[in-house]
Amino acid sequence: MKRGIIIVLDSVGIGAQPDAGLYGDEGSNTLGHIHKELKDLPWFSLANLERLGLGHIDGVDYLNKSHPAIGSFARMMELSKGKDTTTGHWEIAGIVLDKPFPVYPDGFPTEIMQSFEEAIGRKTLGNFPASGTQIIADLGAEHMKTGFPIVYTSADSVFQIAAHEEVIPLETLYDMCQKARRILTGEHAVGRVIARPFLGSPGDFRRTENRRDFSLTPIRKTILNYAAEHGYEVRAVGKIEDIFNRSGITHAVHTGGNMDGVERTLAWLKEDFSGILFVNLVDFDMLYGHRNNVEGYGKALTELDGRLPEIINAMKDDDILFITADHGCDPSTESTDHSREYTPLLVYGKKVKAGINLGTRKGFSDIAATIAEYLDVEADIAGESFLSQVLK
User: Fold this and answer.
1) Cα separation, 127 vs 109, whole angstroms
2) Domain around 122
3) Same-domain status, 208 and 223
């Protein structure tokens, strides 16, 4: 009963890639800068991640490596053009994109907004890049008065629609997102349309956990599709189902935060099935990276670190665990956007060798290739398997 378990610590980058300057991200180091600011605080701990080998990864020279790693480890280099969630996850699953999704630093063009307003039967507010919390603080009162949804974007390829749940019901907001998704095609095919519901009153607005992502369907098959076609189960926790537009996924569950994601993961780990369990823990990125909250990010990492023994103990004999990330989002910089960074890779299982340094992997898709080989699935995907290097 073989299973590949991928846990994505959303935005936990470990240092700027050589091409970071092309993205305005020179010097970014999400984990490194968090550690620098919090390392002397008594509550901050990455002990279990260090035990798996995090401090032994090339370039991660600031963590404890006094004890041998119980897993194998690597530094992952993104090959795709871009630094967004969709690009990173698709590459983990075996797709390398040769051009980035479109971005809109000046807002969306008139023809897009006119088509969207006609489709939803009302005007909109905003239409410029902004922090999600700031734009609802600035435009939330006007939104409540007019009933016009707030449209905004960021440095990522996203069309985001914010609406108060008591002004525009969730199902109506989701329908608006689906209409936007149908409009945003061709040269304007953004990676994701995102529903950003919120509650509260002027001066005290807060985003809810009812966010939904409406992504493009992957441009070709991923390891998820190939595994499902071979009769394996592909179970998705968190926003994975949205990122892949359900393509190749046999079971899915959405979550209300990192710890809910851990609970859902543990529940499925205890069940008997063969295939892939793909997990996204989004709080690091959504709640702390984008809000430049170093302390909150550190507390979320510490909380997750404390749950790792439960995950390890729930694994079955043939399970292989891959802990990684999809990009960076350095909370210590002025930017509130993602950063072009290397990501960590920790590989663990009863069949996995301890202490193997896999170096710098050229492409996140090496994870997909390794899972394909482990499950004995023929798959036309990018990536180079490292299974023979880590399997006992």
Assistant:
1) 9
2) 110-214
3) no
The CATH number that applies at residue 367 is 3.40.720.10
Ramachandran class of 171: left when φ > 0, alpha when ψ lies in -120 to 50, beta otherwise: alpha
DSSP character at residue 189: -
* pLDDT per residue as tens digits for the range 30-78: 999 999 999 999 999 999 999 999 999 999 999 988 889 999 999 999 9
Using DSSP's 3-state secondary structure scheme, residue 278 falls into: strand
How far is 275 from 2, CA to CA, in rounded Å?
Answer: 6
* CA angle (245 as vertex; 244, 251 as ends), nearest 5: 80
Query: How many Å apart are CA 75 and CA 134, to the nearest integer?
Result: 34
User: Quick one: which of 328, 331, 321 has its CA closest to 370?
Assistant: 321
102 in any annotated domain:
no
CA distance 257 to 375: 30
- Taking the CA of residue 173 as centre, how many other CA atoms within 13 Å lie in the half-sphere pointing to its CB? 27
- Is 381 domain-assigned? yes
Which pTM does this prediction carry?
Answer: 0.91
Last residue of a domain, one of 180, 214, 248: 214
pLDDT above 90 for 156: no
Residue 66 has what pLDDT?
87
Q: Does any domain span residue 103?
A: no
Kindly report the CATH number assigned to the domain that includes residue 187: 3.30.70.1250
Q: What whole-number distance in Å separates Cα of residue 196 and Cα of residue 160?
A: 7
Nearest by Cα to 217 from 95, 115, 379: 95
Instruction: Mark whether 70 and 174 lie in a shared domain.
Output: no
Output the pLDDT for position 305.
98
Distances (CA, A) of 305 to 127, 162, 279: 39, 32, 15
Residue at 104 is within a domain = no
> Are 381 and 258 found together in one domain?
yes
Neighbours of 171 (CB within 10 A): 8
On whether the CB atoms of residues 346 and 52 are closer than 8 A, the answer is yes
